[in-house]
Specification:
Layout (H helix, E strand, L loop, with lengths): L1 H7 L30 E4 L17 E4 L11 E5 L4 E8 L5 E2 L5 E2 L2 E6 L2 E6 L21
Antiparallel strand pairs: 1-4, 2-3, 4-7, 5-6, 7-8
């Protein structure tokens, strides 16, 4: 968590609603990370009460765009604690997301979920997987 916090500090001053740089499509284009390495990541909910429940209140959101605010208008899917996702690539400069206990990160992972590409904030995966260096940077994530 400390490493994630150290990486996220510069991003805390951003408005969280910044448009993608240069009109880049952060939603996952066909160019994507095809052929690149992928990795399994595990969804982590810090709320202990939600670690054994698959209820609407315990669902964690997947986003359309890591450069837009992490709120309902940007949500395209949901996952729960313990779900395993296939990550294709990552960005380190997305919107900073803060969890329920104060941890935060601006790292996001592009994942395949329900046949579509979506984004999961790094703060919503197991902490030891946050620094997965085997994943490439996403092509449109700069």
């Amino acid at each position: 968590m400390l490493a994630a916090a150290a990486l996220a500090v510069p991003a805390l001053t951003s408005s969280g609603d910044a448009p993608d740089a240069g009109g880049a499509d952060a939603r996952g284009t066909q160019a994507g990370a095809k052929g690149a390495a992928s990795a399994e990541i595990t969804v982590h909910n810090v709320e202990r009460a939600c670690q054994h429940q698959r209820t609407e209140n315990c669902a964690l959101a997947l986003a359309r765009d890591p450069y837009r605010a992490y709120r309902r208008s940007n949500v395209v899917g949901h996952v729960w604690h313990g779900d395993v996702l296939r990550a294709l690539c990552r960005v380190a400069n997305g919107v900073t997301v803060t969890d329920e206990v104060g941890g935060h990160s601006s790292i996001w992972f592009r994942v395949d979920h329900a046949g579509k590409q979506m984004w999961v904030p790094g703060i919503r995966i197991r902490p030891e997987q946050l620094e997965n260096t085997s994943l490439p940077s996403c092509p449109n994530g700069s």
